[in-house]
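Milestone 3.1: sequence recovery, worked example.
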């Protein structure tokens, strides 16, 4: 039995924050040349990171690794005020902030609510770059909640002054469950007027839900350290479908395809489209027809930082 049809999720791949971050590195390379230092991986995709390394970008996990007078970019995931202060003390030549505006929104919310005397319950994975940066805005007033069990047991000094904020790349459904538990425990808990889960995360998860209804297997293209890519796999599996995360077509295990005639394909928000097309070609060579599933058109764009906005494309 051969694969008859490939269904491509729409939307998929790059979100506006990733596009902005990658363009920021491209323009900084054009303007300042190599070596160019980036604090943490600019986005969580191994192909993107390896390509930039090849071109002279050095990814670091500490400001101490950046030489004096060098140029550094902060990744799309954001950094804490302590990192900003370290960079300032280092007297670097250029510090360029490529934080996604939707992540920066959560940072602003932390600052606003802490100034009003609130305790922050931050839903997310405590070792993820985004959560490390966001919690660093007010570490003494922020408690990270990773799951329902932690939501059921977390304790705050003042239960009357609690606000819940979330990592932007989480599963919408998982976040809802955690927040429901927190609301039962803290009835006066404040939630932001607009939820923190980003539009791209929501759209890609909705597309996978639609995709999963029509296929037997879902392949998500993305790297293992990409939170939003892992969540797409989780969403598909929650609907009872086999789903796997792969970096590219080389990650396809032939045993997954036994008895399968319809395969759904999507990609995380930091995945270049050529990686998707590589997987599509893998199946087209085996006679599969390709069709797109989904109606949402994304037309959101974020401006690159002003420091490099005038650099050549």
């Amino acid at each position: 039995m051969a694969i008859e049809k490939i269904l491509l999720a729409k939307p998929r791949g790059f979100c506006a924050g990733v596009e902005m971050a990658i363009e920021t590195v491209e323009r900084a390379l054009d303007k300042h040349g190599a070596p160019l230092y980036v604090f943490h991986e600019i986005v969580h995709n191994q192909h993107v990171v390896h390509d930039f390394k090849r071109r002279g970008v050095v990814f670091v996990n500490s400001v101490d690794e950046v030489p004096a007078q060098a140029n550094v970019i902060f990744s799309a995931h954001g950094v804490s005020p302590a990192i900003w202060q370290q960079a300032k003390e280092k007297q670097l030549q250029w510090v360029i902030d490529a934080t996604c505006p939707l992540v920066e929104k959560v940072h602003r919310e932390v600052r606003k609510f802490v100034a009003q005397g609130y305790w922050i319950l931050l839903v997310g994975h405590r070792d993820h770059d985004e959560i490390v940066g966001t919690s660093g805005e007010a570490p003494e007033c922020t408690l990270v909640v990773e799951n329902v069990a932690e939501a059921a047991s977390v304790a705050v000094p003042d239960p009357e002054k609690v606000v819940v904020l979330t990592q932007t790349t989480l599963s919408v459904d998982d976040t809802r469950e955690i927040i429901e538990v927190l609301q039962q425990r803290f009835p006066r808990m404040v939630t932001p007027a607009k939820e923190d889960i980003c539009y791209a995360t929501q759209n890609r998860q909705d597309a996978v839900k639609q995709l999963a209804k029509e296929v037997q297997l879902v392949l998500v293209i993305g790297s293992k350290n990409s939170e939003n890519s892992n969540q797409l796999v989780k969403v598909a599996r929650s609907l009872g479908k086999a789903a796997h995360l792969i970096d590219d077509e080389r990650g396809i295990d032939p045993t997954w395809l036994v008895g399968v005639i319809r395969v759904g394909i999507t990609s995380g928000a930091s995945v270049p489209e050529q990686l998707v097309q590589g997987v599509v070609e893998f199946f087209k060579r085996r006679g599969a027809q390709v069709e797109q599933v989904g109606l949402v058109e994304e037309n959101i764009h974020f401006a690159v930082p002003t420091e490099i906005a005038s650099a050549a494309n």
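Residues 46 and 223 are 6 Å apart (CA to CA). Residues 102-185 form a domain with the Cobalt-precorrin-4 Transmethylase; domain 1 fold (CATH 3.40.1010.20).
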